[in-house]
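Subgroup meeting minutes
Present: P.N., E.W., G.H.
Scribe: E.W.

1. P.N. recapped why we're keeping a running log of single-chain structure predictions: easier to compare across weeks, and new members can see raw inputs and outputs side by side.
2. G.H. added today's entry (475 aa).
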Amino acid sequence: MTERKVSVAGTAPLEQVSTPMPEVEGLHRRLGQRQLTMMAIGGAIGVGLFLGSSVTIRLAGPAVILSYLLGAFIALIMSYALAEMAVIHPVAGAFGVYAEKYLNPWAGFSVRATYAVAQIIAIGAEVTAAGIYISFWFPAVPQWIWLVLVSAALVALNSMQVNRLGEFEYWFAMIKVAAIVTFIIVGLSMIFGVGARHAIGLANLTQHGGFLPGGWKGVWLSLTITVTSYMGVEIIAVTAGEAQRPEVTIPRAMRNIVYRLIGFYVLAIAIMVTMVPWNQASSSTLSGSPFVAAFTAARIPFAAGTMNFVVLTAALSSVNTNLYLSTRMLFSLGRGGYAPEWMGKVSSNGVPHRSLLVSTAGIIAAILLAIFAPRNAFLMLYGTAVAGMLFVWLVILNTHLRFRKAITGERLLSLPMRLRAHPLFTLTGILLLFAIAVTTFFVDGLQWSVPAFLVFLGIISLLYLQAWRRKESTR
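Output recorded in log:
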C-alpha cells in the first residue's frame, strides 16, 4: 500500500493508511466509521428538528423550507473546514486544540469551555424534551420523575467503553433515521394520493397567508434556530481522538452526515408543512412535537403514539451523544492544564469518568427547571445554548483561515476532503453566523442569548487568566 504522510509544523506525521493511529491521552481508538456517522446523526437530529421546529414554523410558515436550505449551506462550509483540520489533528480536544495552535491559547480554552457548557445545557434541553414526550402518554405523572430515571440510565451507558457506547448509539440513532425515512415516504404518499387515500396536494404551502406569511424577515428570523439544527456536524471532529484510522474514517463520516442531515431536515420539514397547515403545525407553546401534530391531524391510527416514541428516542439519543461530547471537552481542558487535573483522568476502560460526572450538571438543571418552571424549561435552556454554539462555529471558521495559511499547497492537495474557492466560503460563513448572532436580539425567547453569553465569556476569560498564571508559575 502506498505510504502517505501528512504533516504540519508542530504536529507528528500520520503513519501509513493501513496502520492504526496510536492511542493517546489514555483514550481508546475503538470507534469505527459507521459508529462515528450515527453518533453524529444521533447528536444532531433531536430537539432542533422534532421540538424546536414548532418555533421555526411559527416564524416563517411554509418558507421555513428556505431557512433549512440556508442553514444547510452554512453546515456544508463548516463540515468541509472541520474535516480538513481533523484529518491532520485527530485529537479529543478537536477544534479547541486547533484554535489554540493556529489562533491563540485563549481561543483554544474559551472554545472548549463554551462547547462543553453548551453541550451540558443542550443535555438539559434534550432531557426536558424527553419529559414532554413521555407526558404524552402519562400526563398525570410529574415530568421530573421521568427525567431522573432516563438520566440515570444514560449516565450509566456513558460510563461504558467507547465502542460499546458507539454501538448502542448506532442502533439508537437508527430508530429515528428509519422513522424519518418512513415519515417522508408516508407523507409523500398522502400528499400525492398514492393508494386509495385522497391526495392532500400542495395547497397548504400557499394557503393560510401564502408561502411567505412572515415575509423574508420570517425566513431570516427562523434561521437563528434552524442553523442550530445542523450543529452536530462538529461531532465528527470531537470523536477523532477515539476514531480508528481517522485519516480515512473522518472524511467519509463527515460526507455521510452532512448530506444525510440536509436530506432529512429539508424533506421532513417540507412534508410536514405540506401535510398540515403551518398555523396548526406550529403550536404557540412548546407542548409537543409538530411531527406528532402532523400525524394526528392526518388521522392515521396509532401513528401519533408511534411518532411520539420515535421523537422520544431522538431526544434520548441526543442526550447520550451530548454527554459524550461535553465529557471529552472537559477531559481535554483537564489534560491541557486549563481545568482541575482530576478532570483529565481516565478509568481503566478508557472513559473520563470524572468529567462525565461534571457533565451531568445539565441534567440536574433540567430536573430543577422541570419542577419549578416546566412550561418554560425547554426554551430557557435551548435559547441559552444558541449564542454559545454560534461563537464556537465562528472560532472554528476563523481557525480555518489561519490553518490554510499554515499548511503547504502540496499538503492541501493531498487532503481527502477540502473546501474549494478558499477563502470565499469560509468568509461567507463567518459573515452569515455573525449576522445570525445579531438577529437573536429580535427573536422571542432568544433576546438575551448573546448578552448572557458575553457575561459567560467574561467569566471564563477570568478563569483562563488564573489558569495561565498558574501554568506560568509552575514552569
